[in-house]
Amino acid sequence: MRNANRLHSVLSVVAIFWGFSPSLAVAANCPPKDLKPNSAAVNDEAISFSFRSRLYPASVLSAFTRPDSAAANYCIRYEVVSRAQAAIEKFYWPLAGMQIDTISPGERFSLAITKPPGRDPTIDETWIYAFLNAQVRTYAFQRRAETPMPTPIRVALGASDNRNEVTKLNMQLSATDAVEQRLELKEPTKFSEVSAEFSSGDVIQISSTSEAFWDGKSPQINLSLGIYSEKTSVLAPIAYALAKALSGPELLDLIREISSRQTPLPFDKDNKFRFSKRFSPENFSDTKALYVIEEPIYLITPNGKSCISSPIYSPVPIPGEFLQCRLF
Amino acid sequence: MKNDNRTHLLDDPEATKKWLSLIFTCLGQLPSFGIATGAYSLSLYQPSIYQGKEPFLLVPLMVGLFATWTSLRWENAIWVIMTIFLLLSAFVYWVYDSFGPLSPIHAINWILSYCAVGLFTATLPRVVIDAIKVIDRK
Q1: Which of B44, B49, B52 is closest, CB to CB, to A90?
Q2: Which residue of B has its CA nearest to A97?
Q3: Is the distance from CB of A242 to CB of A224 less than 8 angstroms?
Q4: Chain B residues with CB inside 8 Å of A134's CB?
Q5: pLDDT at residue B43, as a whole number
Q6: Interchain contact, A92 vs B48, CB within 8 Å
């Protein structure tokens, strides 16, 4: 027994050394999970869904932390806790970027997500949906990006007779609404880390961190996606395609292919998927700017499917159709 | 004076029917048009059930146009269209009420619900014209 304990301790140290810890690190500078309802910094709202003559109460909580510097990102945490006697199905909270097939009674889902720097988040209206058509208006911390992509002139699309130009422009037009942030590439810079962390008790824990650098010649993007969850398959088509693509058009083809084939992310022995890559200006047409997009990450467990939106850096804008969670 | 107006409306019943068909077809497509453009949401289902399926709203558009065209070409088409509308509405209600929220059939049912609206509005021009005729006789 003593030997077994010693072996367990040694294995734990080795596992932690290799980055395979039983719980993933909390996203940097984010409110800790399991938000306390009575805390002054936490907004707690009681909601109730109605479906086929039954009520399904739940709590939605939100909180944020201010960044250390004006240029750093905010972090907002959103949580939903089921207070119902039966499962809440088809839960969808657009503001938080959360879609969950089934929330069991008492279950809590928590998502911490970074948001671009700017004014403080405020408590504002948000809509949450569940079941077939149950919708609830409630309130949560939120804020919009202050450096969105400029509104394109849609009329110009039809004016071009160059097929490649049309495709390129079309790609940007369709991405306009979905782009979270556009960052101009001028002086060599290290951009703020963007991240998301999603958990449901000890069953699902996943974290995604993306960094970007600009040395004046080509942008470099690093991404690390770690998971601690048994029997969970993770689909992140955009992250996977970014790791493999050698050019802008190939990137879109790969996203399409990975999405349609539902190819899961290949995790290494540390339960991480990571890449560090320079995107050459020759192959990626728009390298005068970097984009922070919110990519869908799908988690498929024996208990059901869920999808979250996680911010990552991209060298090109991604069409909106690839940025929507589609659980079916 | 009122009677005169009614008589003018039915002076050219075919033209009136065509104009009414155009108006009601447009009205019938408004719910799906609102969803497709994101202008407003008049839907049987919540967004996560139909998100990404918006291009399939071309199906109700085609159904609405075809039903209107048929009713213009064939006098008795209203009875066929009305029967299909009733059967389709019953099916949409049955699916909505019987299947669990996780069933993928709801995405198809969402499209069918707009087809039902398109069929219903295709029958309305004839109903309106007949109603005017009845009022006119009085």
Answers
A1: B49
A2: B48
A3: no
A4: 46
A5: 93
A6: yes
Alpha-carbon gap: A270 to the closest alpha carbon of chain B (Å)? 34
Contact B49 A132 (CB under 8 A): yes
Specify the length of chain B in residues. 138
The model's pTM: 0.81
Nearest alpha carbon to residue A239 among A293, A303, A170 = A293
**CB hemisphere CA count around A280 (13 angstroms):** 5
Q: Tokens in use for A79?
A: 């949580």
Report the percent of chain A where pLDDT is more than 90: 47
Give the pLDDT of residue A160: 32
Residue A326 contacts B where some CB pair is shorter than 8 Å: yes
**ipTM for the complex shown:** 0.82
User: pLDDT tens-digit profile of A16-67?
Assistant: 333 333 344 445 588 998 899 888 889 999 999 999 999 999 999 999 998 8
B51: chain A residues, CB-CB within 8 Å: 324-326
Distance (Å) of CA A247 to CA A60, A174, A211, B18:
42, 19, 20, 53
Q: Which residues of A touch B107 (CB under 8 A)?
A: 328
Q: Which residues contact B62 (CB under 8 A, 6 or more apart)?
A: none
Tens digit of each residue's pLDDT (9 = 90 or more) over B32-71? 888 888 788 889 999 999 988 889 999 999 999 999 999 8
Tell me whether residues A90 and B47 touch, CB distance under 8 A: no
Q: Where are the beta strands (DSSP E) in chain A?
A: 43-51, 54-65, 74-82, 88-93, 98-103, 108-115, 122-130, 134-142, 181-184, 189-200, 204-214, 219-227, 233-235, 272-278, 289-301, 304-314
Distance CA A1, CA A267 (A): 33
Facing residues of A277 across strands?
A221
Please, which pLDDT band fits residue A328 given cuts at 50, 70 and 90? Answer: low
- Contact between A131 and B101 using a beta-carbon 8 Å cutoff: yes
3-state secondary structure of B21: helix
For residue A27, CA distances in Å to A23, A33, A114 come to 12, 10, 9
pLDDT at B82: 95
Nearest CA in chain B to A91: B48
